[in-house]
């Protein structure tokens, strides 16, 4: 893109405005609600397996359904909203998730469970590209910090899901999932507030387009955008890192409760508490990657986050219960710091395509998570969960490809 082209995108001038705390808090809170409802599916796996007599392949198919739905739609929605913003798409997406949650509570067949998972996936596909864009708009130029705060909302929601399942759903049955509809309504209210702010922002941008904009000198990001081949290569490296992270996380999170029950004979509730500890550590780690990347650069954070967990991942399948819990917490904390740094790194390469980039990376992450859960479910049916954990422990070694990324601040 030529340096003489004025920036007319909705993100224009974001770095010159102060951080909008209320909007960032609202979008983070709605991310918590959205991902909490998604994680209820994950936490329901032991109950669904018993009620419908499911194989591990079918368990993986549930994950594949909602994550593949999100994966396919997110880049398309991001591309569409880059061209034609849709501020009120956010509460609509949360409404789709609400419908999926209610269907999940009462679905009488495995087929309808998959439909419920698909509705949740559609809600996620609508939510993530636009909400990531708004987190950046509200950042006041502190893009890494805002993405980390936004991500920690989602990871906290994901961590709360198993805890709520252990406290509410396991004692009261699957239909108690419907009780969480109130949380979805809160999410819709928060997103309506955010949508109003975003509409006002778009109106401000439209007014500014009528005024002549000064020509700005080319930036490092603009230079990268001017070389599509270079950008494409960097994006490919980042997607390999996303594959490594999310394929591994799919195996670790989707089957963690089964791994603990099969290997150590713990109860379902005890396994849910271990899953909560892992996911809570993931939420805490998410808060680190963005602001540290703002200070020292994205590449060191990406490098340390993915390759740094390899020794712990390789040891996890061979240790006792206490060490398993500790190593899982360390892995969750360290590995989760990567995504915010990867996403902001990619957004800085294509600053005029924030929705497309966000949709691509969220979508690819969801797709790899879903594909990983499905593939590893098939392997678990033909071998064992323990052997699956031994196999996927090598994936963080792919973090070595971070060496190919340019050093950018």
From TrEMBL:
Top-level lineage group: Bacteria
InterPro entries (UniProt xref): MFS, MFS_dom, MFS_trans_sf
SUPFAM superfamilies referenced in this protein's UniProt entry, alphabetically: MFS general substrate transporter
PROSITE patterns in the record: MFS (PS50850)
Keyword terms, alphabetized: Membrane, Transmembrane, Transmembrane helix
Any GO MF annotation of the entry: transmembrane transporter activity
Domain Major facilitator superfamily (MFS) profile: from-to ranges: 23-409
Transmembrane segments: 110-128, 149-170, 176-194, 231-251, 271-289, 301-319, 325-345, 357-380, 386-405
Gene3D superfamilies: MFS general substrate transporter like domains
Keyword Repeat: no
Any one annotated GO CC term: plasma membrane
PANTHER family to which the protein is assigned, alphabetical: FOSMIDOMYCIN RESISTANCE PROTEIN (PTHR43129:SF1)
Name of the protein: Fosmidomycin resistance protein
Organism: Stenotrophomonas chelatiphaga
């Amino acid at each position: 893109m030529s340096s003489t082209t004025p920036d007319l995108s909705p993100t224009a001038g974001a770095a010159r405005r102060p951080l909008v705390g209320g909007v960032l808090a609202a979008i983070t809170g709605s991310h918590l609600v959205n991902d909490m409802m998604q994680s209820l599916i994950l936490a329901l796996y032991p109950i669904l397996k018993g009620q419908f007599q499911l194989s591990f392949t079918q368990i993986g198919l549930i994950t594949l359904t909602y994550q593949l739905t999100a994966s396919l739609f997110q880049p398309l929605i991001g591309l569409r909203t880059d061209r034609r913003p849709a501020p009120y798409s956010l509460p609509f997406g949360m409404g789709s998730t609400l419908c999926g949650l209610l269907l999940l509570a009462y679905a009488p067949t495995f087929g309808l469970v998959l439909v419920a998972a698909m509705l949740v996936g559609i809600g996620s596909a609508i939510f993530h590209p636009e909400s990531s864009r708004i987190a950046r708009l509200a950042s006041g130029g502190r893009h890494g910090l805002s993405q980390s705060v936004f991500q920690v909302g989602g990871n906290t929601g994901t961590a709360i899901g198993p805890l709520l399942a252990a406290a509410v759903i396991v004692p009261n049955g699957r239909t108690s999932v419907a009780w969480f509809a109130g949380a979805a309504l809160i999410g819709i209210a928060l997103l309506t507030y955010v949508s109003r702010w975003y509409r006002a922002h778009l109106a401000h941008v439209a007014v500014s387009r009528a005024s002549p904009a000064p020509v700005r000198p080319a930036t490092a990001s603009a230079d990268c955008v001017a070389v599509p081949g270079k950008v494409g290569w960097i994006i490919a490296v980042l997607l390999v890192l996303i594959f490594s992270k999310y394929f591994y996380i799919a195996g670790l999170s989707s089957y963690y409760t089964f791994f603990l029950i099969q290997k150590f004979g713990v109860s379902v509730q005890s396994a849910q508490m271990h899953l909560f500890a892992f996911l809570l550590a993931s939420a805490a780690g998410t808060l680190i990657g963005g602001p540290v990347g703002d200070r020292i650069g994205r590449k060191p954070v990406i490098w340390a986050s993915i390759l740094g967990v390899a020794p712990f991942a390789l040891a996890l399948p061979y240790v006792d219960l206490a060490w398993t819990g500790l190593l899982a917490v360390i892995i969750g904390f360290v590995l989760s710091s990567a995504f915010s740094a990867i996403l902001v790194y990619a957004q800085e390469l294509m600053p005029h395509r924030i929705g497309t980039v966000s949709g691509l990376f969220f979508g690819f992450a969801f797709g790899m998570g879903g594909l990983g859960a499905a593939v590893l479910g098939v392997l678990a049916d033909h071998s064992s969960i323990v052997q699956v954990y031994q196999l996927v422990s090598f994936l963080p070694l792919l973090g070595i490809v971070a060496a190919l990324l340019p050093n950018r601040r």
